[in-house]
Amino acid sequence: MTTDLVDLPPRFGMDRPAFDRLGDRPPGDLRVATSVILVRDGAEGIEVFLLQRAAGMAFAAGMSVFPGGGLDDADRAALAEGLVDGGVAQAAATTWGTSAEAAAALLACGVRETYEETGVLLADVPRPPERTRKRLVAREVGLRDVVGRVDAERLRPWARWLTPELMPRRYDTAFFVAAVPDGQEPDGATSEAVGAGWCTPARALREWEDGHRALMPPTWAVLTELSAAPDTATLLAGAADRRPQPVTPSFRPSGERVAIAVPPHAFGSGR
């Protein structure tokens, strides 16, 4: 069966020589990661929290991204150590099409990375002092020392993107959506970012179109879908039942340019 593909905007494509050079190097290892879309209701509709990655970063330098990062060994032990409830992990495994251990790791990683990069703790516990966040970043303490147990209800499934094999740096990224708990405010105080703030998805997309903001295809696609959401409550309610299907962009060479295309479910499906 042939799956129709949707071409992304030409800006995401590349010149043919650059594409040909990708084939001269071995594909990068696929690393599992999470990204958390923090949302709130603003005066003009739903707003998302975006970080601007530092120019010197090895991956996604200068890009506007949602908070997130790769799994570490402590995340992978989340189920075994009781950081994620077994029943919750099994339900999440059904959502993501993976094992309970792997699903628990995604949940733990999402909470940890969000706290490290924004100061927002997605948990039903009082927000700890700033020194606890710094100790977690330095791996002097673990996430279980901070939250006890992950409150998975705060993390709703949204999307899953895989980097194509030709790329030197590859990620299998689970995107979650979450509302900021009452009394907390993200700050973006991370060494990986040089700026951070709230904006509507539509504004972020306009700034990208005007050349004032850099986005990667997954971020652009997520923002495109979010721009149609009426409010945070409706968004989160709908996300609870999503079953994200993997999205792996494809390259479509045509003359001197190579377009990037994705399956239609990249812009909303997952049920």
TrEMBL record:
What does the record give as cofactor? Mn(2+); Mg(2+)
Give one GO molecular function term.
hydrolase activity
Give UniProt keywords alphabetically: Hydrolase, Magnesium, Manganese, Metal-binding
List residues of the Nudix hydrolase domain: 29-222
Q: Which Gene3D superfamilies would you find in this protein's record?
A: Nucleoside Triphosphate Pyrophosphohydrolase
Q: Which domain of life is it from?
A: Bacteria
**What PANTHER family has UniProt attached to this entry?**
ACYL-COENZYME A DIPHOSPHATASE NUDT19, TESTOSTERONE-REGULATED PROTEIN RP2
Q: What is this protein called?
A: NUDIX hydrolase
Tell me the organism: Actinomycetospora aeridis
